[in-house]
Amino acid sequence: MDRTAQLTIPPEQFGTAYDPPPSGTSPHVRAARVLDANWTGASTVPSLSLYPHQWSWDSAFIAIGLRHLSPLRAQTELETLLAAQWADGRVPHIVFNPSVPLDAYFPSPDFWRSATAGRAAGAPRTVQTSGIVQPPVHALAAWLVHRADPGLSRSRGFLARMYPRLAAWHRYLLHRRDLGGGGLVSVVHPWEQGMDNSPCWDAPLARIAPAPAGSFRRADLDHGAPEDRPTDLDYGRYVRLAAAYRDAGYADGTGGAGGFAVEDPAFNALLIASEHALARIAEELGAAGTARHARAGRLTTALVRRLWDPEAGMFLCRDLRGAGLIRERAVTGLVPLLLPDLPRDVAAALVHTLEGPHFSLGDRTRLAPSYDLLGEAFDPHRYWRGPAWFNTNWLLERGLRAQGERERADALREAFLDLADATGFAEYADPYTGEACGATGFGWTAALALDLHHESHDSPGRGPSPAGTGASGTRDKGGDRT
């Protein structure tokens, strides 16, 4: 395995932006070319035009793909992100590049005012960040990056340096964000969940008075079609929520920022997966991981108890300030397939729902849409309201494999690789036609395509044994996919 920060393909094939590659290059080379173009020297931007800074869960996904090209660069990706961690443990969803003009992205650093508004929460003084978070994929990413080249990782002390930061990150979520008192983590802004514009947020957001239209300028519309992006009304509500959280000093109260507090299935499932990974990291460092595996088991139980809906055949979001479960089917409710400790009937129902009329994977769609095909709010092109996203389909591929659904996982993998390459590694795609939507040359799409190109496709282990048997000793699905 390459031990340098250089890619394993000729540098003359790379440019400074994503352009259609020369004919005859392989999909592997084309994906690697995207990551090279988006590399800043310390981290990888999601998109050169639309997202010119470092994003939290993007970097975790990108590191998972980079490990196949350069384990050192993958380690650097995570190290750069976690260097911006706040003293209270939170990992901010954006780390701003000071060389990027303020008007290139909104909300910009002067909106978040992290160093001043976040002083009480321990925001760093030497780097500007946002004040909200994103899904905790980071421990899973760190473990997979380590396994790509354990010798390099040990020689650099990678896990020894990452573990305290990752443990503090999980501690922040589990202690500060259990706003419902039921053991699950809550998000206090739609941007925190990562699926920004999902119809799942429509009811909670309806309570929020939007910021005045003239009080902010949407830089995203300079780079994306308005019909593909959130509406001005929704964006005004996002701004209002973020400003309320900022003005409260980024304090996590029992009510959520500005009245928005939602327990989300995918966010919590990714925390559980990362808890298992953090246990593996502890074991690698010579400590016991049993307590973390047990905590992950308790979180899985809480997830089923609070968010599973048998009638819907999937997990639903819970609005802590509204009427309970939000009756919208979105891909977030399928992501818990990642967790092999799910009850068998729950896992079977999720697979059935994934292939049924609401998502129609393998029938009407090759990639799972982000929202219910039969839902009133479905739109095949508008941000998170129907298009198929590559990161969520990577999670579903991994989840199907975790549940022993090898043939279904293989079919999803093939579709992912075909469409990622055919769309120029698009941000997302029309779930029916495969038409590219959003930005092209998108970081996590290229990275996760590389991961699926390279993977041996054994299921991710979740417990302490090398064979992948979990803490409960049930349903051995194999070892780590390294």
From TrEMBL:
Residues 1-27, 455-482 are annotated as: Disordered. One of its GO terms (biological process) is oligosaccharide metabolic process. GO terms for molecular function: Glc3Man9GlcNAc2 oligosaccharide glucosidase activity. Gene3D superfamilies: 1.50.10.10. Signal peptide: none annotated. Keywords: Glycosidase, Hydrolase. Residues 51-445 form the Mannosylglycerate hydrolase MGH1-like glycoside hydrolase domain. InterPro entries: 6-hairpin_glycosidase_sf, 6hp_glycosidase-like_sf, Glycoside_hydrolase_63, MGH1-like_GH. SUPFAM superfamilies: Six-hairpin glycosidases. PANTHER family: MANNOSYL-OLIGOSACCHARIDE GLUCOSIDASE. Belongs to the glycosyl hydrolase 63 family. This is Mannosylglycerate hydrolase MGH1-like glycoside hydrolase domain-containing protein.
